[in-house]
Amino acid sequence: MRLAQLVTAAIFAVSATASQAAVYDWGTHGKTQVGSLSVSAGDFSDLYRFTLGKTSSLGGSAVSVENKFGNIDILKITNGSFALYKGSDEAHSQLVKTFSFDGTTANISHVFSNLDAGSYFYKISGKGAGLAGGVYTFTSSLTPAVPEPETYALMGLGLTGLLLARRKRAR
């Protein structure tokens, strides 16, 4: 009877997937931020917290590194998710947008437009499915603001005023 309990416990211990979580604080988001992490086999969920000082837009992309030896996955991430939340923690946050990622998504950039000043975090999650787990990398960049139509109108009005003043002086 005791042996059966030990075998059952061993089976559950071996079949249980390890869950990992890490939290990184970037402070105020810089021009470009990069996150790269090696994860063990099993589920993972990492948070990258930051603040925006003014209304901004962000561009970001994520990719996993995949490595095989024959038919054996050495490094691989499955169910990769790249999500942006408004708020300082998971309990008090609002999902802005989420995207999936894998070993083919390096050239796909996602834009998060017109984000208000405040606290945000990226949640990178998935499953390390290779023998050695997996590796992911992602980037987040502040994108330049696109001028509003009013800005162009005001600039045009200013240029018109300069031209009129120049003509008046020329007479």
Automatic annotation (TrEMBL):
Keywords: Signal. InterPro entries: Ice-binding_C (IPR013424). Residues 1-21 form the signal peptide. Pfam families: PEP-CTERM. Residues 145-168 form the Ice-binding protein C-terminal domain. This is Ice-binding protein C-terminal domain-containing protein. It comes from Paludibacterium paludis. The lineage of its organism: Bacteria, Pseudomonadati, Pseudomonadota, Betaproteobacteria, Neisseriales.
